[in-house]
Amino acid sequence: MREFEAVRIIETLRSGVSSRRLSAIFSYGREALLEAVQRDLDTVAAGKGTRAVVLRGDYGEGKTHFLNTVFNLAQKLNFAVSFVILSKETPFNRLDRVYPKVTCETYLPGEVEPGLETLLRDIHPDSAVAEELLDFARTGLHPKITVVLENYFQAPESYHVHLLYRDLMGDWLPLPQLKSLHRFNFGRPVKIEKFKPQLHVWDYFRLLSHLIRARGFAGWVILFDEFELVGTLGIAARSGAYCNLARFLFPEGSGSLEAAYVIFSTFSGFWSVRLLAERRPDTAEVPARLLAKGEPQKAELAKRALNILLQDTVTLESLPSGEVRGCLTAIRDLHARAYGWAPDIDLDEILNATKHTRLRTKIRYALEYLDLKYLYREEPAVKTGTLEEISLDEVAVATEKGSESGPA
Question: How many other CB atoms sit within 10 Å of the CB of residue 189?
């Protein structure tokens, strides 16, 4: 008799896409690393600052899966969690584009849907929480944020509340429209100094980290996946990305996030392509370029971030064979429950056939093997192959050519 939950899990594994549900079931061989993460989270929850780490590993060895495992752990410890996959549309040199993705992928413990609505919806205008948030905004953030919060707490019309909520989510409300809303709500004009998303978006990050803590959560975990895509950007954009990385890696003074834990996941090949390249490595070219532009402070920040990338990363090692065997055993048992049969397979044979392949390939091989044996009830002949990977340099060239050609 089929178990449909087992079918669901097998189909998710077959898709090759990691998920938090899978990570809750398959968490083999990362216990020591997870213990280190939990120690960091306990430190952050105790109000002892912000921590950021860089996680590196090869393709197909479980980086995204591990991030999802951290997601589950953090939620159990009462952290709000944001999971963002960096991309061409979410380039790390533009935090004003990253922030909206962060807010749209922020999950609070116990909530099914992401977003900030639960953090804001029940704050009464005269409450201590509202006054504390306004005091925080007035003393250290861009004045626009104070005006947004004042109007959000006072706006009588749901459409106005929606517009102000969208601004807090990163859909920036134009200043003339915000001034008009303020006049409508308070009956008086307001002056707001110019707001530039690229320059001032960090204040929105700070507001969100403060809001999460003020609402009683342990802190904020931010998971950035595929940081290696920074390597596809041009030199100017990469310089900006390293400076932004430094903001998370080196929290300093009143401008830092509160009780935040940040992980940047990246492919190991990023080091050979960008950081340790024989010709014009970023470690030399980026600081030199920023110094030549007359930006010594940014040059120092980028240099510090690059040094962390080179010297202080956490490596996600390949799982030992015993842990892989445990994973394949679980897959075999799930397949049996999903399709109502008793597979007689030699796990050692599968391990030997996939000895020099990635974990992702081992799993796909096992599923293909099980599927064929279930269908034909005889020993299947399955082979593994290696697809050629496109390098970061090739992606960068393709990106540059695309931008030069412009829209069709």
Answer: 9
